[in-house]
Design goal:
The structure is a single chain. The protein is mainly alpha-helical. It has helices at 12-20, 23-33, 39-46, 50-62, 84-87, 90-103, 147-159, 168-171, and strands at residues 66-72, 77-82, 114-115, 122-123. It has a two-stranded antiparallel sheet. The chain has a two-stranded antiparallel sheet with strand order 3-4. A hairpin with a 4-residue loop joins β1 and β2. The two termini are 24 Å apart. The mean pLDDT is 88.
Amino acid sequence: MRWDDIDKQHCSVARALSVVGERWTMLILRDAFLGTRRFDRFQSNLGITRHRLSERLGKLVEQGVLVKVPYHERPVRYEYRLTRKGLGLYPVLMTLSRWGDDWMDGDRGAPLEYVHLHCGANTRPVLTCSECGKPLRPEEVRPQLGPALRARAAELAQAGGATRDIPPLLRASQ
């Protein structure tokens, strides 16, 4: 499968990567969460070429992750603001940041600490079960087919097609 077609996979990770999987994109989003809104500030913070930044911002706007809002009339100038869809990426960035702190800090410590404004304490993201509140650990979570893949498997079975859209480890659970 070509990278350009990754958004057509029946996989939430692949679909998400079709929007945020390019290396500059996550850094643009990091800066947006840190308050950067204007093109020139993104460029100076990241050291990215104008052309590449324009492409990445355009894609994020097209995908509804950022919205382009005018802040100056003559000449017209825009800033980029996170949408609700963009704000939904906050847990992803926080978790990625924690992974970088845990595994890539070179024993220097975290470059940023996050303060929970509600209680005033430094905080680190923790992935927990939405039902019982216990931390999620890979060995304690079992994936199973969801409604989209069950429907796709039924379509394929009815048409006599292969189940290549179903991840191999999950084919047995159909």
